[in-house]
From TrEMBL:
Signal peptide positions (record): none
Name by which UniProt lists this protein: MBL fold metallo-hydrolase
Gene3D superfamilies for this protein: Ribonuclease Z/Hydroxyacylglutathione hydrolase-like (3.60.15.10)
SMART domains associated with the record: Lactamase_B
PANTHER family: EXODEOXYRIBONUCLEASE WALJ, METALLO-HYDROLASE YYCJ-RELATED
Residue ranges of every copy of the Metallo-beta-lactamase domain listed in the record: 12-190
Organism: Denitromonas iodatirespirans
Domain of life: Bacteria
InterPro entries referenced in this protein's UniProt entry, alphabetically: Metallo-B-lactamas (IPR001279), RibonucZ/Hydroxyglut_hydro (IPR036866), WalJ/YycJ-like (IPR052533)
SUPFAM superfamilies named in the record: Metallo-hydrolase/oxidoreductase
Length: 257
């Protein structure tokens, strides 16, 4: 069994907890020690139980709390070489760093980690497929578009955390300045609801058990709109889905072998 839960998702902070066997991984850590501990407690976990952190990229909504966590609990932090250089350039001190090659899978205890590259306006942005007990959990947020390599990496996953960042019409008609709108909608920005729905339609196979929609914009999206689109793609199939919120994240979702 793999289980996973968001601790909060959006432009003000991200972290995803994933567990298989006795191994607990945190994907990104955008929350400071106090908030992190509170949100882990809701899921019955204490920070000491985190075995490792995987970073997707250096944007502060993904790394703001990682230095404090790694320092306090001596927890290893895995990241791409480009993400490491970007953190160092900003003098964002994080101990216990371990670089991985984006093209190569590597083990962390009960997990096999498969990093894959995504287009996003960061130094070397990377997302992950986590394999354990014959199951795969695919993670994808912070990507401006979907490439064939990304589709290939995510094929066959039993669980998916997918970015549904914005509704294209809401973004276009919304309050953001033109430059920011162009950045978000561009090929190195964030996935809109239609692009995410199309990807989910392509990945929707019998093996799919659970979908977590994530990184919703609080200004340019509505959870109700995302729910409607998830319902349209998943139909009556027995696929569990949730929408991760900024304030509360999500409940546990479970993948069974
Ligand atoms: Zn982000
Ligand atoms: Zn980002």
């Amino acid at each position: 069994m793999i289980r996973f839960a968001s601790l909060g998702s959006g432009s003000r902070g991200n972290a995803l907890l994933v567990q298989a066997g006795r191994t607990r991984l945190l994907i990104d850590c955008g929350f400071g020690p106090r908030v992190l501990a509170q949100r882990l407690a809701r899921l019955g976990v204490v920070p000491e139980q985190i075995d490792a952190v995987l970073l997707t990229h250096e944007h502060s909504d993904h790394v703001a709390g990682v230095g404090a966590l790694a320092k306090r609990f001596c927890c290893p932090v895995y990241l791409s070489p480009g993400t490491r250089r970007a953190l160092e350039r900003r003098q964002h001190a994080v101990p216990h760093l371990r670089e991985f090659e984006v093209s190569a899978a590597f083990p962390i205890q009960d997990f096999q980690v498969r990093p894959y590259a995504v287009p996003h306006d960061a130094a070397e942005p990377t997302q992950f497929v986590l394999d354990a007990e014959g199951l795969s959990l695919g993670i994808l947020t912070d990507a401006g578009r979907v490439t064939d390599a990304m589709r290939k990496a995510l094929a066959g996953c039993a669980g998916l955390m997918l970015e549904f960042n914005h509704d294209a019409t809401m973004l276009a008609n919304g309050p953001y300045p033109a430059r920011l709108k162009n950045r978000i909608a561009g090929g190195q920005g964030h996935l809109d609801n239609d692009t995410a729905s199309d990807l989910l339609r392509q990945l929707h196979r019998g093996s799919l058990q659970a979908v977590l929609a994530a990184h919703l914009s609080e200004t340019n999206n509505h959870p109700a709109q995302v729910a409607k689109q998830l319902g349209e793609v998943l139909g009556d199939n027995p696929v569990a889905w949730q929408i991760a919120s900024q304030a509360a994240g999500s409940d546990w979702m479970t993948l069974q072998g």
